[in-house]
Automatic annotation (TrEMBL):
It comes from the Bacteria. The lineage of its organism: Bacteria, Pseudomonadati, Pseudomonadota, Gammaproteobacteria, Cellvibrionales. This is Glycosyltransferase family 4 protein. Pfam families: Glyco_trans_1_4, Glyco_transf_4. InterPro entries: Glyco_trans_4-like_N, Glycosyltransferase_grp1. PANTHER family: SULFOQUINOVOSYL TRANSFERASE SQD2. Residues 14-154 form the Glycosyltransferase subfamily 4-like N-terminal domain. It comes from Microbulbifer variabilis.
Length: 391
């Protein structure tokens, strides 16, 4: 089987890329071919380095790209992602007369109100995303499935039990003097324009940290994007107000380094897929998504977080000081931090393990292709049965 995965994005890397990368690796491990259609850049190179076939396209002339790709390649199935990648996928699927699937990642409907019947399956990354589609008039509800973000638990795994051993892991990232007697908070996020709500929540927490002159919280920020410069300005204000550096920016980090960072943390602040990765690393998380504030992921908040893809769906409800208060309520309670960290890891292993969802997705592909082949065979039989004989 040869599967085309078109994906359009503005940020060079992020949670969408991780989702698609995991999808492609699962396809290849099964012995099938996977080709990702995407813009040139670091993601395309990452895929090439891993043996994934790539078609580079700048998505500037979709009609031309659809025609050229349809003429040059043969695919059995297309699994598209939203907007321009969905549009180019639909065009190729029509030209080649093959099934197309779509994954919806957030609070939007794209063109599904008008053309949902064109897709064999529509996958949503959470129940909240599915409900958003239903509330906005998407029909063919039997086609909509929840296919959540999942975690590679071989990369994101539980680390040291001892806090002192965990802190040793972070010494390679920041000055050792920063962490003596302090609490380590990791903020991990792609800093795109669409993440403005998340970045504003963090900046709000820093304002309260300055107001209450708390100099024992040490922040390590992992991520990059257009919003980073503004966040750095806010960090400099807090550093200057407290008279020392309490916020360190590391930029974009590989998954291996992120796991080491998460394991070293007392607490992590993160959205969506990053929140799940951190929970798999056995550390407590306060989840904030681009569409809503969730709070600490514990027994009382797990379903709220999971339902919304950890803030990816919501109404952006946030009370100034809320993140600061949530941090302050647990940051010094080691027993509480360990308890909710272990709870989160168990829930990830139970319902968000990549190994399980890889098998599930491949079974979906098999089922769709079997139904497609059956329908095509029946169509051919009907044509033969009702064809007019030559005279």
């Amino acid at each position: 089987m040869h599967i085309l995965v078109p994906v359009f994005f503005k940020a060079p890397l992020g949670g969408l890329h991780s989702h698609v990368y995991a999808q492609a690796k699962a396809i290849i491990r099964e012995g099938w071919r996977c080709t990702i259609l995407c813009k040139p850049g670091p993601f395309a190179q990452q895929c090439r380095d891993s043996g994934i076939e790539i078609i580079e396209d700048d998505f500037s002339d979709l009609s031309k790209s659809i025609a050229e790709i349809s003429e040059s390649f043969k695919f059995d199935l297309i699994h598209a992602h939203p907007f321009a990648s969905r549009e180019i996928g639909q065009g190729i699927a029509k030209n080649l007369n093959i099934p197309i699937l779509l994954t919806v990642h957030g609070k939007y409907t794209d063109t599904l109100v008008d053309d949902c019947d064109e897709f064999s399956r529509i996958y949503c990354v959470s129940l909240g995303v599915r409900d958003h589609l239903v509330k906005n008039g998407i029909k063919s509800l039997h086609k909509i499935f929840v296919y959540p973000n999942a975690v590679n638990t071989e990369v994101f795994y539980a680390g040291h039990e001892s806090r002192l051993d965990r802190l040793k892991e972070v010494e390679c990232f920041i000055d050792n003097n920063m962490i003596k007697g302090c609490r380590i908070i990791i903020f991990s996020c792609r800093m795109g324009i669409d993440k403005k709500f998340i970045l504003n929540c963090v900046k709000d927490a820093w304002i309260y940290q300055a107001r209450y002159k708390i100099d024992s919280w040490r922040w390590i920020v992992a991520g990059d994007g257009p919003g980073k410069a503004d966040l750095e300005l806010a960090a400099n204000e807090l550093n200057e107000y407290l008279g020392h550096k309490c916020i360190t920016f590391l930029g974009w980090q590989s998954e291996d380094k992120l796991n080491a960072l998460y394991q070293s943390a007392d607490l992590v602040v993160a959205p969506g897929r990053s929140a799940l990765d951190c929970l798999a690393s056995n550390r407590p998380v306060i989840a904030i998504g681009s569409q809503g504030y969730i709070g600490a992921i514990d027994e009382g908040n797990w379903y709220k977080g999971s339902y919304s893809n950890f803030g990816g769906v919501g109404e952006k409800d946030y009370i100034s000081g809320e993140l600061f208060q949530d941090i302050n309520s647990i940051i010094y309670d080691d027993e509480k931090l360990d308890s909710i960290g272990k709870f989160g890891r168990k829930r990830v292993l139970d319902s968000h393990d990549q190994k399980y969802w890889d098998v599930w997705l491949l079974d979906q592909y098999r089922e769709i292709m079997a139904l497609y082949d059956e329908a095509r065979s029946l169509s051919c039989e009907l044509l033969e049965e009702y064809s007019v004989p030559d005279t």
